[in-house]
Amino acid sequence: TEEIFALFVSVAFLVDASAHVFQNFVGNYSTPACKHYDDYWKLRRMNESISVNTTGDFLDEPCARDSSLLYILLTLGTVWLGTFLYKFKQTPYLTSAKRELLADYALPVSVIVMSLIGSLLFSQINLQSFPVNHEPLFVLVRFKSVTFKQIIATGGLGFSLSLLMFLDQNIAGAIVNSPANKLKKGKAFHVDLFVIAILNG
Hints:
Layout: H1 2-28, H2 32-46, H3 56-59, H4 65-86, H5 96-104, H6 106-121, H7 148-176, H8 191-200
GO molecular function: solute:inorganic anion antiporter activity
Membrane topology: Multi-pass membrane protein
Protein name: Bicarbonate transporter-like transmembrane domain-containing protein
């Protein structure tokens, strides 16, 4: 059961990352503007005397293939660096504590390092910025306007969500507390269950 759940989680992350890479290539690499650029340079090779003004409208359109290439470079670089740091504890370099520290924080370190590389070394490439919403995302519902059917529907959704959180915590706990990890039971072993109980309550 734990292996199947871990497989589903890994597949979900892979599909989500691949979908974002595909969307970036569709929006920046395989655009009509890029095809116009390709046609323009093919014509230039066929006839060096072609007038630039005949295709000047193509040159004014945006084509950001460099952004897509940097996107997949940073994505694969993050995976490689995270895997390298995670396996660093098997190397004879540094001390045992430092190797364990690098292995434990392999994911955040790889994300931070590749983010700095993309921001500093490739600053001339125009990357897509994250949308910023200054309006409050959480708005309280006026309970006087809520109908009885809506209360029943939200109750069913709330029960399903609480069951999902409970199952997720227990399965993740079973994976982490596997005998292969050789973990010791600490003082705060059941704090996660206490937090789940508060959330469900």
